[in-house]
Amino acid sequence: MSQDVKSGKILSPSTPWTERGVPGIQVPDEQTSLKATFTEPTIECPECHALVTRTAMSFNAYVCPQCDEHLRMKARDRLNWFFDQVQTELGQEFKAKDPLKFVDSKPYPARMSEAQTKTGETEALVVMQGLLKGIPLVACAFEFDFMGGSMGTVVGDRFVQAAEKAIADKQPLICFAASGGAGMLSLMQMARTSAAIQKMKDAGLPYLVVLTHPVYGGVTASLAMLGDVHIAEPKAMIGFAGKRVIEQTVREKLEEPFQRAEYLLDHGVIDQIVHRHALRDTVYRIVAKLMNLS
Asked: What are the beta bridge partners of residue 85?
């Protein structure tokens, strides 16, 4: 004898199967409220449109596991991934000001506040000092989601401080560039950052640039193209003026891969293209060689 799982009735061995309840299946009645279940947030790959969980994407350094597309990394995530150990963060004392009282569709302070709320950062450049496979160095990364990685006065202040710290501690400087251009006070920052890089060279210390997607404008015209070695991530867009601006000027259609990292490598603008998974090892080998540590 057995008991029906649904009705609780005692069933004999001869009870037809059509009268037996199906174990493990519960059908809610109409009065039962349905509760939503938690699902982990996903990220859609812009190339193949695969949906990958945020955790899986983070563990894969924001490289799509389906098509190998390199997705944009937040500046803080990138530096925490790059360093084996972060020792300190630099430049947090610098705060943006509004000397021009600039207003476009909204006042500049309001736009800054909006960007800070969106990204959780106070400015478009994050600078950290730490260890990469035992080598102490200083690294900075642009936060593209912060007003397109615009290079304002605070970005200039932080970059100069990063270079000065590297010189004082006799360490290399690594820059992960990602910017749509430069801000209202960018021309002065282009000169300041270029002068800081020259001081690195005078001190005999390596300055490496990793070009991520995208790099344009005043950042390209200054700190992003003054490195001892220029590394780019696959398919990164790199240039000064945008592709459409150039097309309108020359009145020609510029086909792919114009301004892509692969195009720049073929034309000698950059030194190599490195997959993100191999980037830490590549930077380590180059720095060790330039610092005579290997």
From this structure: 131
> Tell me, what DSSP letter sits at residue 32?
S
- 165: nearest Cα among 215, 124, 207, 123: 207
Contact 81, 95 (CB under 8 A): no
- pTM strictly above 0.70: yes
Report the distance separating Cα 215 and Cα 83, nearest Å.
Answer: 22
CA angle, 84 then 89 then 93, to 5°:
175
- What is the rounded distance in angstroms from the CA atom of residue 161 to the CA atom of residue 157? 6
In a 3-state reduction of DSSP, which class is residue 271?
coil
The predicted pLDDT at position 190 comes to: 92
Query: Is residue 194 a contact partner of residue 226, using CB atoms and an 8 Å limit?
Result: yes
Q: What is the C-alpha to C-alpha distance for residues 89 and 4, in angstroms, rounded to an integer? A: 66
52: left (phi over 0), alpha (psi -120 to 50) or beta: beta
Encoded tokens for 139? 């690294």
Q: How far is CA 155 from the centre of its chain?
A: 16
pLDDT average per 10 residues of sequence, the chain (294 residues): 57 64 59 62 93 93 95 96 96 86 81 91 96 97 94 94 98 96 77 96 97 94 96 96 88 89 95 98 97 85
For the chain, list the domains and their CATH numbers: 37-71 (no CATH), 72-290 (3.90.226.10)
Q: Computed from CA positions of residues 285, 72, 140, 256, in that sequence, does the dihedral angle turn out positive or negative? A: positive
**Nearest by Cα to 212 from 121, 140, 137:** 140
Strands (E), 47-132: 51-53, 85-90, 125-132
